[in-house]
Amino acid sequence: MLAQILSSGIAVGMIYAVIAFGFQLTFATSGTLNFGQGEALMLGALVGLTCVDTFGMNYWVMIPVVCLFGMIQGSFVELIGVRPAIKIKSEFGWIMSTIALGIIFKNVAENIWGRDALPFPSPLPMEPMSFLGANILPMEILVVVGALVMMLLVEFFNRKTIYGKAVVATANDRDAAGLMGINTSMVITFSYALSSLTAAFAGVLIAPLTLTGATMGGALGLKAFAVAIIGGLSSGMGIIVGGLILGIVETATGFYFSTGYKDVPGLILLLLVLAYKPSGLFGKSAIKKV
Fold first, then answer.
1. Is 286 a member of any domain?
2. Tell me, what's the pLDDT at 286?
3. What confidence score (pLDDT) does residue 197 get?
4. Does the residue 55 lie in any domain?
5. Are 201 and 151 in contact (CB under 8 A)?
6. What is the pLDDT of the chain when averaged over all its residues?
7. What angle do CA 210, 215, 221 make, to 5 degrees?
8. How far is CA 180 from the centre of its chain?
9. What's 134's DSSP letter?
10. In the prediction, which pLDDT does 184 show?
11. DSSP string covering 42-104, please?
């Protein structure tokens, strides 16, 4: 039974980690967060469902289309909701703008796809496989592998490409990067595009395991934000560990107690981290010279 809890918790936790990874991307370059990240996941899943069901597109061919859509959606959020607030140095403007855009996206999705939850066809068999006494769905394995591959690709891009190094330079010191000729505004836009890409990708990964609908992103986005805070917005490893912790704890609570209480331990952990280590379990405290 422990193996079953661990396998299910890891699959859920990696989805949280991918979405939380998107929070880290935008925070590093601009110090802002997209509080509509859950809606980016939801839109990615619904666009993917339309590609597969309506246009008869193969699941694997559909993934690049959804990723491109995610980049466009993220760029739109940055241009409309975040950049104006950064220009006027509004400390909270980007918070309300991203929340408002998230609500708009949700309402648009309800009008296009309806309010009912829709099944998403799985590209893999839905018969569970037995491993160490646990029943594991092939799609759960794909979720874990896909999440790890996505985060590794982003890390490779940041470390090995000239454009990725521009992102890293902007994250380290935006003013210095601008003086060196880097277009920091474009880098911030790109970080939002990449953030929404990861969320949309997470949407099509998890959709075959759940029902797809306009309300699916709210809870996932909130939990991913909790993971980002617990692990630390400055630590990629912390994001992964935080996601695994939350996923396993939720699964164990739902099994041993009740599914009605599965959200409680994660929120308690979030409160403890905020009280005793606000930078996160693996995050570093920022030192500002005054």
1. no
2. 56
3. 94
4. yes
5. no
6. 87
7. 85
8. 31
9. E
10. 87
11. HHHHHHHHHHHHTS---HHHHHHHHHHHHHHHHHHHIIIIIHHHHHTT-TTHHHHHHHHHHHH
How much is the average pLDDT of 208-237? Answer: 86
Q: Assign residue 31 a region (left: φ > 0; alpha: ψ between -120 and 50; beta: otherwise).
A: left
Look at residue 233 and give its three-state secondary structure.
Answer: coil
Mean pLDDT of 211-226: 88
Output the six-digit token pair for 181: 């000729």
**In a domain? residue 100:** yes
Q: Is the pLDDT of residue 130 over 70?
A: yes
The residues pairing with 130 across neighbouring beta strands, listed in sequence order, are 135
Tokens at residue 94, please? Answer: 């980007």
- Whether 67 has a pLDDT exceeding 50, the answer reads yes
Whether 95 is in a domain gets the answer yes
Q: Residue with structure tokens 């490779």?
A: 156
Quick one: average pLDDT of 108-133?
A: 86
Q: What is the CATH number of the domain that holds 221?
A: 1.10.3470
The alpha carbon dihedral of 142, 145, 149, 151 has a sign of positive
Length of the chain: 290
Domains of the chain: total: 1
Range of the domain at 207: 2-276
Q: How far apart are CA 75 and CA 81, in angstroms?
A: 10
Between CA 144 and CA 220 the distance in angstroms is 16
Residue 90 CB-half CA count within 13 A: 13
One-letter identity of residue 83: R
